[in-house]
Specification:
With 213 residues, this protein is mainly α. It has six helices and no strands. Helix 2 (48-78) packs antiparallel against helix 3 (84-111). It is flat, with a radius of gyration of 26 Å. Bound molecules: fe (ii) ion. Residues 76, 92 line the site of fe (ii) ion.
């Protein structure tokens, strides 16, 4: 190091002097404050066992909802064909609505004292929705996959809603019925109508005679 550089180094040290407490403490690790699957009970007048059962159910629903949300984004990007524009927009709208559900479910788990799944690898291990290929698929296949995922979620949400009511967890029941079930049912309607095989331009002449012909 030249005397000139050395001098510069000294002046850096002088600049840093007295700033120790203002510097970020980086690269830290420590033990978990709550292991996954355990309940850190909050004063919400619900039994710990009820919180644990609702948390376990909601984490399954969360993993499936996150997977459906991400499948919507995949299809939003990869859609092809003459309905590209409308489906590109519809898939993104549904993605946004599913993303809101993800947040509601995850925060319900936390307020029940549980821990919500968060990372993609954990979600992939947990979801029951069939994994689609990385490549692009035709529109009818995209929509079929989405409908199957919606139906799986609707089935489990209805079962979980009944279990929550029986256990006295009205908040979880309300989330499942008012938000999860209602949103998924509506999205199914908007999707399913795209798979009705009706003529696009010329009416089916087999059923009714066309006037003047
Ligand atoms: Fe986009």
């Amino acid at each position: 190091m030249s005397p000139k550089n050395n001098k510069r180094g000294e002046s850096y040290n002088q600049l840093e002097a007295g700033t120790k407490r203002a510097k970020p403490v980086q690269h830290q690790r420590g033990p978990e404050i709550q292991p996954y699957g355990k309940i850190a009970k909050l004063p919400i007048a619900l039994d710990e066992k009820v919180c644990a059962e609702s948390t376990e159910n909601l984490n399954q629903l969360l993993a499936d909802t996150m997977t459906l949300r991400d499948m919507y984004k995949k299809h939003h990007w990869q859609v092809a064909g003459h309905t590209f524009y409308q489906l590109h927009l519809l898939f993104d709208k549904h993605h946004g609505e599913q993303d809101e559900l993800v947040d509601e479910i995850a925060e319900r788990i936390q307020l029940l004292g549980g821990i919500s799944l968060a990372m993609a690898a954990d979600v992939a291990e947990t979801t029951m929705i069939e994994r689609p290929p990385r490549g692009r698929e035709e529109v009818p296949v995209q929509i079929s996959r989405l409908l199957e995922a919606h139906e799986l979620i609707l089935k489990e949400a209805r079962t979980m809603a009944k279990l929550a009511t029986a256990a006295g967890d009205d908040g979880t029941n309300d989330l499942l019925v008012s938000d999860v079930i209602r949103t998924n049912e509506l999205q199914v309607w908007f999707l399913a109508e795209h798979l009705v095989d009706v003529p696009v331009v010329r009416a089916d002449r087999g059923a009714v005679a066309v006037a003047g012909e």
